[in-house]
Design brief:
Elements: H1 3-21, H2 27-41, H3 49-76, H4 81-98, H5 102-117, H6 122-158
Amino acid sequence: MNFAGIVIALIFFIAGLIGTVLPLLPGPILVFLGMLIYGFITGFTILDSNFFLLQFVVLLILFLIDYVSSVLGTKISGGSRGAMIGTMIGIVMGPILLGPLGVVIGPFAGAVFIEIINGSELQKALRIGFGTFIGILGGTILKIFIELVMIIYFFVSII
């Protein structure tokens, strides 16, 4: 074990977990980078390529959770196919137009906007938007759990 490497990895892990909750930082990427930096510091002698390959696959799954949870929340709350597309557009455009808050506002606004355009009443459109928000919240909770499993696996692997 390398003490400096562990401290640096811990800083990245904490920043990553915070970034998952507050969309100012790319949470899962920071968690993975903490592991990767530890690997560089130790010359990749403690953590092998299989470890990093597994963590990278989990990182990709974490990215998918954002999209799937938002769309699933839209669908479960009764959103149309158009609202699901609006959610996906909001996922991409929200952060571009609104910065970090766009991660939450974008999918909500996309679902609500498309539902209203499709003729839904405002109350129904807002319910669908709220379902999108619940999907995002559920996805965030799942991402934190998975990131914690990644971090525990990291520590188990270096001991």
